[in-house]
Amino acid sequence: DIQMTQSPSTLSASAGDRVTITCRASQSISNWLAWYQHKPGKAPKLLIYRASSLESGVPSRFSGSGSGTEFTLTISSLQPDDFATYYCQQYDTYSKAFGQGTKVEIK
Amino acid sequence: EVQLVDSGGGLVQPGGSLRLSCAASGFTISTYAMSWVRQSPGKGLEWVADIGGSDDNTYYADSVKGRFTISRDNSKNAVYLEMNSLRVEDTALYYCAKGPFVTSVTHFDCWGQGTLVTVSS
After folding, report:
1. Nearest CA in chain B to A43
2. pLDDT of A93 above 90
3. Smallest Cα–Cα separation from A59: which of A40, A78, A33?
């Protein structure tokens, strides 16, 4: 099975900061990767699919890049609403796997 | 508006059974593949099962294969997860999720609010 590893596990940042989260796959997944934002008590929200395609309605400060085994999610200027946990997810195989999550906290 | 409403969770003893439901609105489930995803307390997200929109093909995580069954009732526009032989480690918040295509789930573009399953004696 493909394993997904995110780093860091926790990130402390201030509003206005540029934030980058990394996701690594245990083997090549081409660009079959999605990113989600998850807040406590809420349903996860799709941000990015196919590694770099922005989901409709998602602010343009979110962007994704990468292919093969290494991917990044960047928030260009962190907003108060962006403090949450972020997950990557591979869909190269039917056995979809998520990363362990990156919690973005207020510094 | 596309919406998923999850229900059916509760407290069940180890070895017991439970059936989760996911009511869809704003779209027809037969035109999209659907999934269940869970989150154990303090842990991350784990994919559980998929069902195709048009062909009823099903796929399961190894951790639930042989114990859980995903199904769909197009007349009720609903998806179900039948869970048998439940274990303590199945305790989680279970989310219904929609894929963007009819044949298979790739990523998840809409999620329910989740229903809590607690397996404990």
Report:
1. B113
2. no
3. A78
Which positions in chain A touch B50 (Cβ < 8 Å)?
A: 94
Residue B8: exposure state from Cβ atoms within 10 A (0-12, 13-18, ≥19): middle
In this complex, the residue of B59, B109, B114 whose CB is nearest that of residue A46 is B109
∠ CA B72-B77-B79, rounded to 5° = 35
Q: What is the pLDDT of residues A64-74, one digit of tens each?
A: 999 999 999 99
**Which among A87, A63, A99, A83 has a CA at the least distance from the CA of A13?**
A83
**B64-116 pLDDT, tens per residue?**
999 999 999 999 999 999 999 999 999 999 999 999 988 878 899 999 999 99
- What is the least distance, in Å, from the CA of A99 to any CA of chain B? 8
Q: What DSSP character marks residue A55?
A: P
Contact call for A87 and B112, based on CB within 8 A: no
- What tokens does A13 get? 């940042």
pLDDT the model gives residue A35: 98
Show Cβ contacts of residue B39 under 8 Å, excluding neighbours closer than 6 positions: B45, B46, B92, B93, B95, B114
**A70: CB partners within 8 A, 6+ apart:** A22, A23, A24, A25
